[in-house]
C-alpha cells in the first residue's frame, strides 16, 4: 500500500468530537493521515476548492448549514471526492437520505471507534476509485443505495454490512467465439457474479445484452440475494451476463458463445454451487446448451445445473410464465386489500417481453381491463381494454408491437402517467424517477422489472399513498418456480401445474404478508420493509455461520 | 452522589485509551460553560434554530462520555428547537443543567482520581 498520507477534510463544529477523530486517526500507521479540520460549511468549501482532499468526514449539523442541505451543498462542490456522513443514532433517516444522495458511507457517532473509522475511510477512498472503473453503473449504485438505506434503518451489524455491499465472488472472462462467416473470431466480455455464498448454492439468470457490465451484473446478483431471502429460498444471489447483442447472432453463433461461456465458468457453476437460469436475451434453448456442455464435461446428465430448461429436459411446468403469474397473484391480493376487485380494475403494463406479456395475459384473465401496453418502440392505448391474445399473436408474427391496429399510439411517458388502478413496469430499470413520480396516476405499482424506480421516486410515491409491490417481491415468481424445478430435478419428480402454482402463491403471499406487517409496524415504505425482511435472514445466517477461519 | 456516567462504555469511544478520554474530559470541562451559555441565551432570545444547534453541539459532546441521561436532556432541547416550540424549554434547561453539573463533577473526580493515583 502507498505510504503517502491520506488527506481528510474533517468538517465538524464540535471541538471535542474533532479532537477525538484527530487522535484516533493520528494513531494509524497504515495509512497515515493529514487532517484539515474546519468548523463551518463555508470553510469546508473554501478548503475543498484548494484541492488535494481524499475524503470528507462530514457532520451534517453546522453553524452555517443544517441537515441534508449541508450534504447537498458540499456534494455540489465535490462530485468526485467521497463523503462520509457522521450522524447520531437519533437522527435516523438523515444519514440514510445522505447515502441515497450519494454519500459513500455513514458513521454513527454513538459507536465511533478507531477500527470502524479507519475502515470506512479506507473503503470510501478505495471504492471511489474502483467505481470509476469497472464497477461504475447506475444500477449497482441504486442497489447499494437501497441496501444501505435498509441496513441503516434495520441497524444491521456493521461487519455484515461491509461484507454484503459487494459480491463475494465476481469473475470476468474475455470470451472468444467463432462467427459463421470466414474465420472471424469475436471476443466479448462475460461475467458471473455470486453475491452471497453463505445461504446455499447461488441462483440467478444469465443476460445477453449489449449494455451489460460488471456493475449491472453485480446489482442484479445483489437483488437476487434479497429476492431469494425474502421468499425463504435456500439460495444466495448470483447473476451472469455477456456484453453482446443476441439479435445480431445466428443460432449457431449463440450456441458456440453459450458453450464457451459454460466452459469458462464451469468451475464455479453446478447444481450444488451456482445454478443459472434465463434472463434478458436468453431462453430455454440457451439453458439446454449450458446443461449439455456441463453434462459432457462431467460425463453424465446433470439437468439441475440450470433451471428454465425445456420441459423434455427436466424443465418445470409453469416456469416460463411464472414471473408474470406471480406478479398477478400479488396484484390481486393488493387490490383486495385496497377494497378493489381485480375483476373490473384498470391496468397498464410497460414492457411486452416474457414478464410483461404474461402479466398482461393473467391480468386480463383475472378480469382486469388492460388499457395500455408497450414494448421498446411502441405504446398502445385503448380505454376500453386491449385484446391481449391478439397483441401476442401480432408480436409472435412481427416480433414487435409496431403497426398493431388495436389501440391508439401514445408515448412511453404518457403510458406511465395514465389513470389506472394497477401500473406494472415490466421493462427496464430507471423508469420512475423524481421527474415523473409525482405525475403517476396509479393506486398500485407492481414492479415486474428489476430496479424500475429510483429512491427519490420511492419517497414521492410513499407520500402519495401509492401501494408499491417492490421488484424483489413482485417479480420473485420466476425464481420461486426455478427453485421448484431444481427441487424436482434433484428428486427426479414431476409436480402437476396446479401444485406448482399453488405452492408459488403460498410462498409469495407469505412474503407479502410479512412485508406489509413490517411496513405497517415500523412505518416503512414497502421496498425498505421487504429489504429488511431479506436482510435479517441473510444477516442472521452469516452471524450463525461465523467467519472462517 | 450516584452518577450514571458509564466510564467503561465511554472508553470504547476512545478505543480504550484512558489518556485520550481524560484529555477530552478536560476539554469538556473547559468548553462546557460556553456551550451552556449558548443554550441559555438561545432560550432567552426565543431563537429556536440557535437552540437546536447549541443543544446539538452539547449533545455530541456529552455523548462521548456515555452518560445517557445528559444526552437525553440535550436531545430534548434540540428537539424543541427543531419543532420551534420552546414552551417547555425552561424545564428542559433545568434538567440539562442538573445533568451537565453531575457530569462535569464526575469527570473532574475522574481526572483528580487518576492524577492522584499517578502520584502514589
Features:
heterodimer; A: 549 residues; alpha/beta; Rossmann fold; 3 domains; seven-stranded mixed beta sheet; five-stranded parallel beta sheet; 19 helices; 17% strand; globular; B: 120 residues; mainly alpha; Four Helix Bundle (Hemerythrin (Met), subunit A); 5 helices
Low-confidence stretches of chain B: none
Class computed from helices, strands and strand pairing of chain B: mainly alpha
Percent strand of chain A equals: 15-25%
The CATH H-level superfamily of the largest domain in chain A is NAD(P)-binding Rossmann-like Domain
- Please report the total strand number of chain B as a whole number: 0
Query: How would you characterize the largest beta sheet of chain B?
Result: none
Assigned CATH architecture of the largest domain in chain A: 3-Layer(aba) Sandwich
CATH class placement of chain B: Mainly Alpha
Please explain how this structure is put together.
- The complex is a heterodimer of chains A (549) and B (120).
- Chain A has 549 residues and is of the alpha/beta class.
- Chain A contains 19 helices and 17 strands.
- Chain A has helices at 15-26, 41-50, 67-77, 94-100, 114-132, 138-154, 158-164, 214-230, 251-264, 284-298, 322-337, 354-365, 388-398, 412-416, 455-463, 471-474, 477-491, 497-522, 526-545, and strands spanning 6-11, 33-38, 55-59, 83-87, 105-108, 169-178, 185-194, 202-209, 236-243, 274-278, 346-350, 369-374, 379-381, 408-410, 422-425, 444-446, 467-469.
- In chain A, the strands form three sheets. Chain A has a seven-stranded mixed beta sheet, sandwiched between helices.
- In chain A, helix 3 (67-77) runs parallel beside helix 4 (94-100), helix 6 packs parallel to helix 8 (214-230) and helix 9 (251-264) packs across helix 10.
- The model of chain A has no long low-confidence stretch (mean pLDDT 92).
- Chain B has one domain (16-109): Four Helix Bundle (Hemerythrin (Met), subunit A) (Up-down Bundle).
- Chain B is built from five helices and no strands.
- In chain B, helix 2 (18-45) packs antiparallel against helix 3 and helix 4 (68-83) runs antiparallel to helix 5.
- The radius of gyration of chain B is 15 Å and the shape is elongated.
- At the A-B interface, helix 1 of A face helix 2 and helix 3 of B.
Amino acid at each position: 500500500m502507498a505510504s503517502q498520507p491520506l488527506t481528510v477534510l474533517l468538517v465538524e463544529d464540535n471541538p471535542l468530537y474533532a479532537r477525538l477523530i484527530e487522535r484516533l486517526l493520528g494513531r494509524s500507521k497504515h495509512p497515515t493521515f493529514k487532517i484539515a479540520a474546519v468548523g463551518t460549511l463555508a470553510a469546508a468549501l473554501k478548503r475543498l476548492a484548494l484541492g488535494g482532499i481524499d475524503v470528507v468526514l462530514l457532520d451534517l449539523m453546522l453553524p452555517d448549514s443544517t441537515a441534508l442541505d449541508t450534504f447537498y451543498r458540499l456534494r455540489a462542490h465535490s462530485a468526485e471526492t467521497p463523503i462520509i456522513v457522521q450522524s447520531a443514532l437519533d437522527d435516523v433517516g438523515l444519514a440514510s437520505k445522505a447515502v441515497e444522495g450519494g454519500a459513500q458511507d455513514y458513521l454513527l457517532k454513538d459507536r465511533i471507534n478507531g477500527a470502524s473509522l479507519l475502515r470506512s475511510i479506507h473503503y470510501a477512498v478505495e471504492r471511489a476509485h474502483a467505481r470509476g472503473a469497472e464497477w461504475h453503473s447506475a444500477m449497482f449504485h441504486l442497489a447499494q443505495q437501497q441496501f444501505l438505506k435498509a441496513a441503516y434503518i434495520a441497524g444491521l451489524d456493521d461487519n455484515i454490512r461491509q461484507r454484503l455491499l459487494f459480491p463475494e465472488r465476481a469473475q470476468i472472462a474475455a470470451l472468444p467465439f467463432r462467427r459463421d462467416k470466414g474465420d472471424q473470431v469475436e471476443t466479448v466480455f462475460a461475467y458471473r457474479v455470486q453475491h452471497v455464498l453463505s445461504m446455499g448454492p447461488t441462483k440467478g439468470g444469465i443476460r445477453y445484452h449489449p449494455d451489460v457490465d460488471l456493475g449491472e451484473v453485480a446489482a442484479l446478483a445483489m437483488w437476487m440475494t434479497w429476492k431469494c431471502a425474502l421468499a425463504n429460498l435456500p439460495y444466495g444471489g448470483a447473476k451472469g451476463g455477456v456484453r453482446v447483442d443476441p439479435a445480431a447472432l445466428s443460432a449457431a453463433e449463440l450456441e458456440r458463445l453459450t458453450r464457451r461461456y459454460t466452459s469458462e465458468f464451469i468451475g464455479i457453476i453446478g447444481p450444488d454451487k451456482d445454478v443459472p437460469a434465463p434472463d434478458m436475451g436468453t431462453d430455454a434453448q440457451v439453458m439446454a446448451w449450458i446443461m449439455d456442455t456441463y453434462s459432457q464435461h462431467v460425463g453424465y446428465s446433470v439437468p439441475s445445473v440450470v433451471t428454465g430448461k425445456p420441459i423434455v429436459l427436466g424443465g418445470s411446468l409453469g416456469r416460463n410464465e411464472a414471473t408474470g403469474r406471480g406478479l398477478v397473484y400479488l396484484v390481486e391480493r393488493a387490490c383486495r386489500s385496497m377494497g378493489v376487485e381485480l375483476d373490473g380494475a384498470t391496468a397498464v403494463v410497460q414492457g411486452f417481453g416474457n414478464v410483461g406479456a404474461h402479466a398482461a395475459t393473467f391480468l386480463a384473465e383475472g378480469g382486469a381491463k388492460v388499457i395500455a401496453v408497450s414494448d421498446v418502440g411502441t405504446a398502445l392505448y385503448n380505454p376500453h381494454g386491449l385484446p391481449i391474445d391478439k397483441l401476442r399473436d401480432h408480436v409472435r408474427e412481427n416480433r414487435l408491437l409496431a403497426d398493431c391496429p388495436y389501440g391508439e399510439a401514445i408515448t412511453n411517458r404518457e403510458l406511465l402517467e395514465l389513470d389506472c388502478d394497477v401500473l406494472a413496469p415490466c421493462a427496464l430499470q430507471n423508469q420512475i424517477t423524481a421527474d415523473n413520480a409525482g405525475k403517476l396516476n396509479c393506486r398500485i405499482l407492481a414492479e415486474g422489472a428489476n430496479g424500475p424506480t429510483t429512491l427519490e421516486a420511492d419517497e414521492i410515491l410513499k407520500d402519495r399513498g401509492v401501494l408499491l409491490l417492490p421488484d424483489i417481491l413482485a417479480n420473485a415468481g420466476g425464481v420461486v418456480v426455478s427453485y421448484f424445478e431444481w427441487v424436482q430435478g434433484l428428486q427426479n419428480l414431476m409436480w402437476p401445474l396446479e401444485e406448482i402454482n399453488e405452492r408459488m402463491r403460498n410462498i409469495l403471499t407469505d412474503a407479502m404478508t410479512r412485508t406489509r406487517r413490517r411496513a405497517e409496524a415500523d412505518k416503512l415504505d414497502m421496498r425498505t420493509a421487504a429489504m429488511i425482511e431479506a436482510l435479517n435472514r441473510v444477516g442472521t445466517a452469516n452471524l450463525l455461520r461465523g467467519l472462517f477461519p | 452522589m450516584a452518577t450514571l456516567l458509564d466510564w467503561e462504555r465511554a472508553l470504547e469511544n476512545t478505543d480504550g485509551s484512558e489518556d485520550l478520554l481524560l484529555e477530552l474530559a478536560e476539554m469538556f470541562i473547559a468548553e462546557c460553560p460556553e456551550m451552556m451559555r449558548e443554550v441559555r441565551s438561545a432560550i432567552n432570545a426565543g431563537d429556536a434554530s440557535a437552540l437546536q444547534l447549541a443543544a446539538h453541539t452539547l449533545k455530541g459532546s456529552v455523548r462521548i462520555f456515555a452518560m445517557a441521561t445528559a444526552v437525553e436532556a440535550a436531545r430534548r432541547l434540540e428537539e424543541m428547537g427543531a419543532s420551534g416550540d420552546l414552551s417547555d424549554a425552561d424545564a428542559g434547561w433545568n434538567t440539562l443543567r442538573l445533568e451537565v453539573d453531575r457530569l462535569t463533577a464526575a469527570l473532574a473526580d475522574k481526572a483528580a482520581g487518576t492524577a492522584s493515583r499517578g502520584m502514589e
